[in-house]
Each structure stands twice: as C-alpha cells, then as structure tokens.
Write a structure and sequence with these properties.
Largest sheet of chain A: 6 strands, mixed
Strand content of chain B: over 45%
Order of helices and strands of chain B: EEEEEEEEEEE
Largest sheet of chain B: 7 strands, mixed
Helix content of chain A: under 10%
Mean pLDDT of chain A: 94
Oligomer: heterodimer
Largest interface: A-B, 19 and 22 residues
Number of strands of chain A: 12
Order of helices and strands of chain A: EEEEEEEEEEEE
Chain lengths: ~120, ~110
C-alpha cells in the first residue's frame, strides 16, 4: 500500500526567507501524481503545486517549487521569499494511476509559521 | 471557478443523533470524496463516489454511510453520532487535474 510521510509537524521561517518542507512517499507504481495543498487557518484547502511522476522537470508556481527525486521517493516543497500569507498547514498528497480511482493519500501535514 | 460548498461550518450534536453533512459542487464532477481531518493524522478518506448512486469505502468507513442521489450532491451520514466522531469533515470533488475542497464542517458530538 502507498504511504506518504511528512516528518516535520511544524516549521518556522522568517519573512522574506526560504523554507523547504519535506515529503517522502512509498509506492510500487511507476506512474503517479504528487501534490502540495495549502490549508490557511479557517480557510479552504487549495492546491499549491502538482507534479506528474513521468516528468523529470520539477514543477514551479511563482515562489513555490518542488524538488522531485523519483528514485529516492522524495517530493519537497520550497517556498521562496516567504510572506505572512504563506502561514498555513501544508499537506503532501499522492495519487496513483493503476487503481482506476481518483483516491488521494495525504500526509499528516506540516504547520508553517511565518515570523515578521 | 469551481465551487464546493458544505451545508454547515460548525455543528454541535448529541451522542446518538443521526447527523447529515451535505456537500454540493457546481462543476459536474463525477468523483466526490469525504475526508475526516484530525490533528496529527492528516486527512483520512471515509467514502468516495465515482458516479450517481455509486460509492466505495475509504480507509475509515465504520460508523458512516453516504448518499449520492444527484451528481452535484454527496451526503455523509453519521447513523448514531458518537464522541469519537468529533472532528473536521472535508468534502472534495475531483476535476481534470486536482481535488477541490469545501470549507469544512467542524462537528462536535457531546
């Protein structure tokens, strides 16, 4: 069975600095998708970034980028120039392609604090 | 923009009550999901539905049931609420590339 592990329950970063959130996963599938979702306090969960496993190039969305290491089964999220609005819970998620469903497996989350 | 709405943001129920949580999406998505979110446990899948009247159990279905009579609406039912079902409940629907989430319902069972 697939698993997703986020080993950092909480992280802090100074405003304008860079922070990296870690995520590892375990799967026997060769084709899959990985996601980072953001859940701001008392607000809706939204997608930050998405990576297809067959793409070697790391996904980037403005200040957010990932370091996808398929062999190591690692999928970290880098936030550059951190802003106060980046403070949130961040969840790493996995979706396989062999089950024929759109089921996601989520990690336990990392709470990011941004210090002014 | 995709919109996923949930019937209540906060709900307080008594032990033994039957509880209905409703979720509506406006993008004609076939796949819809109910999760439970607890601190330190992340999101755990309760049930999902891939079409009207079609459903599958997720990882923690015990104590819950679901109903999908119309494509846009997916309901989570707690047949007899218990205190260990106090939690945040998130609904999601799946579009072409991602899951879209509702705002969540924080349920307290006393």
């Amino acid at each position: 069975a697939q698993t997703v592990t986020q080993s950092q329950p909480e992280m802090s970063v100074q405003e304008a600095e860079t922070v990296t959130l870690s995520c590892t996963y375990d799967t026997s599938e060769s084709d899959y998708y990985l996601f980072w979702y953001k859940q701001p306090p008392s607000r809706q969960m939204i997608l930050v970034i998405r990576q297809e496993a067959y793409k070697q190039q790391n996904a980037t969305e403005n200040r957010f980028s990932v370091n996808f290491q398929k062999a190591a089964k690692s999928f970290s999220l880098k936030i550059s120039d951190s802003q106060l609005g980046d403070a949130a819970m961040y969840f790493c998620a996995y979706r396989g392609t062999t089950s024929g469903t759109y089921k996601y497996i989520f990690g336990t989350g990392t709470r990011l604090k941004v210090l002014a | 923009d995709v919109k996923v709405t949930q019937s209540s943001r906060y709900l307080v129920k008594r032990t033994g009550e039957k509880v209905f949580l409703e979720c509506v999406q406006d993008m004609d998505h076939e796949n819809m999901f109910w999760y439970r979110q607890d601190p330190g446990l992340g999101l755990r899948l309760i049930y999902f539905s891939y079409d009207v009247k079609m459903k599958e159990k997720g990882d923690i279905p015990e104590g819950y049931s679901v109903s999908r009579e119309k494509k846009e609406r997916f309901s989570l039912i707690l047949e007899s609420a218990s205190t260990n079902q106090t939690s945040m409940y998130l609904c999601a629907s799946h579009g072409a590339y991602e899951q879209y989430f509702g705002p969540g319902t924080r349920l307290t069972v006393t």
